[in-house]
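Name: F-box/LRR-repeat protein At5g02700
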Amino acid sequence: MKPLTHCSHYQDQDSEDKECWRYVNWVDSVVKMHTGPTIEKFRVCFPLDFSHTPFIDRWVQFALKKWVQDLVLDFSAQSHKLLYLGNGFSKASGFSKFRALKDLSLNSIGVTRGDIGFVLSSCPCLEQLKVSNCPNLTSVTIVGSHFALKLKSLAIECWHSMDSIEILDANLVSFSYSGNPLKLVLSNVPLLVEVSISERDSILTDDYRGLIFTQLSGCLSQLHTLGLDLNGMVDMEVFSVQTLPNIKHLELEVLGEDILILEQINCFMKACSYLEKLVLKMQFIFPEVNLKEASNTCSHHHLEVVEIVGYRGRQSAVKILMFLMETAVSLKKVVINPVRQLIRGESVDESDEVVEEEEARQHALHELRREVPAAISFGCL
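Structure predicted for F-box/LRR-repeat protein At5g02700:
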């Protein structure tokens, strides 16, 4: 059975209500016409509000009764209205109806810790859970021994009032968190090999530099993939990185104007001696600066692929790439991607962004490419 999927975005704020009801009626009609016994995927993506809750509950019940495997509810909008599910999950008739759900994604919904607990206890086949922009979710606790969990991937994005995330005795393989600094406990997660942490705060202390590694101390040695946001540490003293023997894939969010960024990248390369792929997600906010040279550098013998995301034709970006090409003696491929990752809350002129991306692309193709040895494959997206 093909997935039931529809995603729309309104442009004219004056017609918001009209567009919402048109969308609701459209989904309602599709749901009523569907006569098949099952659906694989059900996705609702539209900025709905409180008045549409009864309809959404009905759609959720419909999807669960049809043994849906992949359920996506995305109500994010510029107005940031928070929508609450009524009893869409709890009213689904029969516990067995939850047994098919494998992938659940919730965005801009007023779920609580209790709601997440209900989902975990009622969906024994759930493998992937993603929760975004749910300010009523102040904490998450997952204890694998309490449920017959098959959960392999957990992604949480919350920039509001979340206090803690605790994951104990679970078989998670992948975990990611984006939000303000919080209490993070990962204990007895033997299968966890992929972690991404992006913690930022308006007020940072010296302790912040080591906070991430303290939080991950119980599983760092087993990780194969690690993603970290270093933007909150701009121009601070370079912090030491403990040995990460199994890291093969490293992603770092960095600020191109951080004068210490070469030194920090050097520390990570020393710590990840078996690193094979490095992805640098770059931001450029301030005027150009002269980067401080890295000290005590040494050759890296396993790094084969370097990707720079958000590339701009600045000297700092060129200097970073030159440093990596000099240090990584086994480098085989360089990938340049001028499409940058927007900072949370950032508003941009789309046309200006497209122009910047094209200028960066042309700089990479005609200027940067000349700096890359012929033996190294060069690609620009």
